[in-house]
Amino acid sequence: MPDEHTLRQIRDLRDRTLNIVVDSLVAGDEDTSRSLYEIAVKFSVLVPPKQGPEDAPVPIFARYEGGLYEATLDRSRITESGRGSCVWFMDQWMSTSRAAETIGGVPANGWIFWQYARPDGSEGTISEIRDKVLAATETIQDALDEEDADVPW
């Protein structure tokens, strides 16, 4: 994760690039505006959104053969396919399944192996968190697709 100074620089470059996109559109230079818009989108991907409580890492746990194992789930590391090395366990990032296999010694579905404490105190599988992340990602992508519809190219 870039430090705050680097993030500010990336945001500044993105904003400057978007200003040039607008100027290019006004001037009728569609090719330049399209190219710069694509660059601005890439800058945006580098800058994580501001984190709220719903974005904070989630303490997770697993019970296996009388033992209690603890790890951390980072929602921002869950990919669009619902995969990714999003579990911090034994001092390294792993996929949910690899972390589960590390405990049990056999392949396991980590999304149902690991659990978390819901706000009401009950327990749930981390597949619930993954599903919420993927639904939010889909909503964001739909919004971006609608914004792209307004771009003249």
Structural shape: elongated
The helix tally amounts to 5
Order of helix and strand elements from N to C terminus: HHEEEEHHEEH
**CATH architectural name of the largest domain:** Roll
| Helix proportion | 40-55%
Mean pLDDT: 82
Major sheet size, sense and barrel closure = 6 strands, antiparallel
Total strands: 6
Strand content: 15-25%
Unreliable segments (pLDDT under 50, ≥5 consecutive)?
Answer: none
If you had to describe this structure to a student in words, what would you say it looks like?
The protein has 153 residues and is of the alpha+beta class. The protein folds into two domains: 4-48, no CATH class; 53-141, Roll (SAND domain), CATH 3.10.390. 50% of the residues lie in helices and 17% in strands. It has five helices and six strands, in the order H-H-E-E-E-E-H-H-E-E-H. It has helices at 4-26, 30-46, 96-104, 110-113, 127-149; strands spanning 58-64, 67-73, 87-89, 92-94, 115-117, 123-125. A six-stranded antiparallel β-sheet has the order 4-3-2-1-5-6. Helix 1 (4-26) packs antiparallel against helix 2 (30-46). The longest helix has 23 residues, at 4-26. It starts with a helix and ends with a helix. The mean pLDDT is 82.
